[in-house]
Amino acid sequence: MIVVRLMNSFLIALQFLTRIFVVKQTVWTEKSFGESVKFFPAVGAVLGIFCAGIVGVLNFFTVGNLPLLTGAVGFSALILLTGGIHCDGLMDSADGLFSGREREKILEIMKDSRAGSFGVVSMILVAALDVSALSELAKISTAAICAAIFSAPIIGRLMMVATIGIFPYARREGMGKAFAQFTTRRTVIFATIEAIIFLAALNFFDVKFFVAALVATLGAAFVTWRFASFSTEKIGGVTGDIYGAVTTLSETCVLIIFALSFNS
Questions:
Q1: What is the rounded CA–CA span in Å between residue 12 and residue 25?
Q2: pLDDT tens, position by position, 77-88
Q3: Inter-residue contact 187 to 66 (CB < 8 Å)
Q4: What 8-state DSSP symbol labels residue 20?
Q5: C-beta separation of 31 from 182 below 8 A
Q6: What is the spatial distance between Cα 162 and Cα 246, in angstroms, rounded to a whole number?
Q7: Which residues pair with 238 in a beta bridge?
Q8: Cys bridge to 169: 29, 129, 180, 190, which one at CB 3.0-4.6 A?
Q9: CA 177/CA 27 separation, integer angstroms
Q10: Handedness of CA 150, 94, 39, 175 (dihedral sign)
């Protein structure tokens, strides 16, 4: 019974955060939706395996001679596999938080599905940094780019869990409220251990990849803390869009740190 419940939580997380459907579920309770948070890093591992496989094969057969293409394909694969859900959160967050408006207006702007100038610019900057970092890693080695793009979604979703569990939810209602309601410090600890276990798999290839992943986790944690704190100052907490934003920014941070770590 416990195994079935845990598997159900994982499948809910997988369906919500990705376009990968193992079993399509259409009826979710707030509790089951909220309890799926603990498996977000596991979903990141699934995404990481797919993306690492794609860039690994491409970089191997091109012998590292098309690093820019490999980087662009890796970036695109991660977006396509998630349906761009976190990118949308980043753009909405940028439009609202940097609008210079009052709290209620910021929340209204963030809820608007249309993209504004701040959102577009933020996405362009993230895309440029991600593709550049992945391209540099592709030049270094196939193992390096695979390790980075495997680690990034795991750490990114761990940072989402940390944001959900530590910072207050800013809206009275919303999809993210179920996450916040059922996420505790214990959930964050569980997700952290889960993420470290997945990242430890990098040791089978080279211990330096695991060390880089740990350093990247600390860097992503700092970025997450600063961004979530900024949001809390502006609107009194975080929202579902902020969850997506910290995930995207954390992934970018991870890729940059990996690129800096091995570019010597």
A1: 7
A2: 999 999 888 888
A3: no
A4: -
A5: yes
A6: 10
A7: 169
A8: 180
A9: 17
A10: negative
